């Protein structure tokens, strides 16, 4: 039975791309929408997003941010105001020319991101130092028309949050940019059980219109990197383009300093590819839609169904997202299905278990089968979920640490990348080195790390200079 | 001071439309977006929406619904499949012709509602009776290009939820349609403190593509009606157009029976116009972003600031959404601002209060000023918020009941409407009567009530026949 299920999922080691597609479709996380590149997020996938949203939103609010909602349609002229920004996004926007049966006087675009419309409002709302800092976030859909798409990773429409803040000083804006980067890193670690590298992006990889971009990169099981979140320091580029000025305490008009930051439904793709295995999903307990599934075994025997219901009710009452599976299918079929769906804890209730006052359980991260007393199972399950989170994180961290190697020169860099690892390089920040790495290895500088260089010449060009350590990897 | 604030808001009795606009803009619920007919929902307005969302979502989930997310862009051809539906919505859609720098082979529209795309997926997902019922909801933005727009009431883009369900039998689908209507009515009463009339809509007023539409209508302070939510029974109209069939237990292929239902950010407009007064907003406690504001009076005096902070912390700890206002403004200025913003409970902490171990408080619904002991203030405040909810509901209900009159004939109907009341009419369901009422009085049949007719002839045409009682009103 297990084999039959597994047969449906392509081999994770040799066909990782197909494995991913099989998993997201067969576990009913998503389906393809009628327009190429769009996805339908099905209830099981959307419940993960809701859990991410809820826990991120709490962190945003606890750090003084408020939510708001800005219109999705942006006049073309507004998009055009910041030169680099429009150059970066114009090629992928969707344009509305006709609405309400009439040709629009000015076409508008569906937001690919909301800097432009938010800045136009900030220009109206911000007048005095008393109006600062202004720290807003919005949960929204955005559209970026992409050539190559894959569910969660790159879709024409996706869901995300975008924070946009305005500050009186450069230092404050920069601090916000870093604080949110750290918030994302902590969230990935504490909620998604996912270790990440954080650091500044290269000039080439930075956001269109930003002064500096910082990224959070996670290692997927195929050794490729996934950009899981970014924060941007805008300096005064947008405030000058959109005229956002405030009268400071010293009675002088000044332009505000800004940041923006975002994560998206892409995080779901990251979870799948950081934790999955041949059987399917392995979901971190804190975002799993179902944390524990209770399956009656030999449910026709006296007392089994009742006991299973009782146990499920006790787990629910303890705040565990529990599903009781009483469907008319064999236990084996159910075991495999819930394994594929990545439920952290599976609890089997059979007549012999009940006689012994026990249940048999299986944790999804290790697939080991153990037993536990029914008495106090709620507390034990809570502790188990915590332990599953911890051990998933440790496993991910160990995997990552064993897949990061120092590249002292270009030959080593090529070997490391071909061995499906991240390379740590020393880089003199010359864009020519970055271009060469891309050309030779189809790899990119992911983030620069705040670490002392491990040699005194650039891994790529061998020159001395203003050296930094950086992560180079192939990426999604 | 009070006068100065009030001066900024147009007179509620004689200039209700301007009063509404003044209130939504000055309390910073919304601002106008750059494209005509769009609104920016500012943090204070969005927090109300979040409170509505959270409490509705809990009710949806408790009744077996799951959330999902469907693409916003719908191929034109998909919209065209159900004839009445496309006829109803085509005139107001926004059309995307160009995306990613290229002319699209087939134009797509931004969803005005999602029946079409959801039905196309249901056709794929539903195969067996085991797949039923399917009860999904989505929280999303929609675009309907309207000629005349007003914040919250009618905007080109708005936020809403739309439930879409599929069932094996007509009875089940009809039960769902009614259950959700009752859920909306209970929510309006228990959370928004707003009495409503519920009932079936006339043929003319029903949703494009529905077999029957049911509505929830609330009376605004100007005697006009606002449609605050609708539920639709589709029968098999959509399942036949989109080919949604299932193999039933009897091994026969059958079309599913469907419902849909929705409420939107319009509810915020309803709250404003059902509860507001000359001083501004009066927010029902259960959705108020700030339920209690604590204002230190003579804050420079020893111990005042500390005591105010202590009280605010105690209220927050009791689960009350509390704001401590320590801004550098006079207490009078603050009182007026928070009154305008509709905060249910205002607590003043001054040196004399502290001496007496008391605070002075004011409830927004009555504006009476009272005092309460500091000891146990958290419990007292919780009880007060509950009482404010109850008395707001009672006040609304009394207002409504005193503004509904029986219209025995057309002359009475005209007089009732001109007196800014709802009319209860007896109607023989002849569309000609409905058209005449519209023509003569610019009023419409809002809902048909499940009540015995109070006379045996139609209020409009005087004929006997298949008579029903209905609410006739001018409407938003």
UniProtKB/TrEMBL annotation, chains A, B:
Instruction: Please list the residue ranges annotated as the Aminoacyl-transfer RNA synthetases class-II family profile domain.
Output: 37-284
List, alphabetically, the Pfam families matched.
HGTP_anticodon (PF03129), ProRS-C_1 (PF09180), tRNA-synt_2b (PF00587)
Q: What note about domains is in the entry?
A: Consists of three domains: the N-terminal catalytic domain, the anticodon-binding domain and the C-terminal extension.
Q: What is its main location?
A: cytoplasm
GO terms under biological process: prolyl-tRNA aminoacylation
Against NCBIfam families, the record matches this protein to:
proS_fam_I
Instruction: Give any Gene Ontology cellular component.
Output: cytoplasm
Assembly and binders: Homodimer.
Q: What is its EC number?
A: 6.1.1.15
Gene name, Swiss-Prot/TrEMBL: proS
What family is this? Belongs to the class-II aminoacyl-tRNA synthetase family. ProS type 3 subfamily.
Q: Care to name a GO molecular-function term for this sequence?
A: ATP binding
Q: Which reaction does it catalyse?
A: tRNA(Pro) + L-proline + ATP = L-prolyl-tRNA(Pro) + AMP + diphosphate
Note the InterPro entries from the entry: aa-tRNA-synt_IIb, aa-tRNA-synth_II, aa-tRNA-synth_II/BPL/LPL, Anticodon-bd, Anticodon-bd_dom_sf, Pro-tRNA-ligase_IIa, Pro-tRNA-ligase_IIa_arc-type, Pro-tRNA_ligase_II_C
Please give the function described in this protein's UniProt entry: Catalyzes the attachment of proline to tRNA(Pro) in a two-step reaction: proline is first activated by ATP to form Pro-AMP and then transferred to the acceptor end of tRNA(Pro).
UniProt-annotated location(s):
Cytoplasm
According to the UniProt entry, the coiled-coil residues are none
Which UniProt keywords are given for this protein, alphabetically ordered? Aminoacyl-tRNA synthetase, ATP-binding, Cytoplasm, Ligase, Nucleotide-binding, Protein biosynthesis
**What is the superkingdom listed in this entry's lineage?**
Bacteria
Q: What is this protein called?
A: Proline--tRNA ligase
């Amino acid at each position: 039975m297990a084999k039959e299920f597994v047969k449906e999922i392509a081999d994770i080691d040799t066909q990782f791309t197909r494995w991913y597609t099989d998993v997201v479709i067969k576990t009913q996380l998503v389906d393809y929408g009628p327009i190429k590149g769009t996805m339908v997020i099905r209830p099981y996938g959307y419940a993960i997003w809701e859990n991410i949203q809820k826990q991120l939103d709490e962190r945003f609010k606890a750090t003084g941010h408020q939510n708001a909602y800005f219109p999705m349609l942006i006049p073309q002229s507004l998009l055009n105001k910041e030169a680099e920004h429009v150059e970066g996004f114009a090629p992928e926007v969707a344009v509305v020319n006709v609405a309400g049966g009439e040709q629009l006087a000015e076409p508008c675009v569906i937001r690919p991101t909301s800097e432009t419309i938010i800045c136009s409002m900030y220009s109206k709302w911000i007048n005095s130092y008393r109006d600062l800092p202004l720290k807003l976030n919005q949960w929204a859909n955005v559209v970026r028309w992409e050539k190559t798409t894959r569910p969660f990773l790159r879709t024409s429409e996706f869901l995300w949050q975008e924070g946009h803040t305005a500050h009186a000083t450069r230092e404050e804006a920069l601090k916000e940019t870093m604080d949110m980067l750290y918030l994302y890193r902590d969230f990935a670690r504490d909620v998604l059980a996912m270790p990440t590298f954080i650091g500044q992006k290269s000039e080439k990889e930075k956001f269109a219109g930003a002064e500096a971009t910082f990224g959070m990169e996670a290692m997927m099981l195929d050794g490729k990197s996934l950009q899981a979140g970014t924060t941007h320091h805008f300096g005064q580029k947008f405030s000058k383009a959109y005229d956002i000025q405030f009268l400071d305490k010293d009675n002088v008009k000044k332009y505000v300093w800004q940041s923006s930051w975002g994560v998206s439904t892409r995080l779901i793709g990251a979870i799948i590819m950081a934790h999955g295995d041949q059987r399917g999903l392995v979901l971190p307990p804190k975002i799993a839609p179902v944390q524990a599934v209770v399956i009656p075994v030999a449910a026709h025997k006296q007392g089994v169904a009742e006991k299973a219901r009782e146990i499920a009710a006790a787990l629910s009452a303890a705040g565990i997202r529990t599903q009781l599976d009483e469907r008319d299918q064999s236990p084996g079929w159910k075991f495999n299905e819930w394994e594929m769906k990545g439920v952290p804890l599976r609890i089997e209730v059979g007549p012999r278990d009940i006689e012994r006052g026990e249940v048999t359980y299986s944790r999804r991260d290790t697939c080991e089968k153990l037993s536990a007393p029914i008495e106090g199972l709620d507390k034990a399950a809570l502790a188990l979920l915590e332990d599953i989170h911890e051990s998933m994180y440790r496993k991910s961290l160990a995997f990552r640490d064993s897949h990061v190697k120092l590249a002292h020169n270009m030959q080593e860099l090529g070997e490391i990348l071909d061995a499906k690892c991240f390379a740590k390089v020393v880089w003199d920040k010359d864009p020519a080195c970055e271009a060469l790495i891309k050309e030779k290895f189809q790899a990119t500088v992911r983030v620069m790390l705040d670490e002392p260089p491990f040699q005194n010449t650039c891994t790529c060009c061998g020159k001395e200079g203003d050296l930094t350590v950086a992560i180079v990897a192939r990426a999604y």
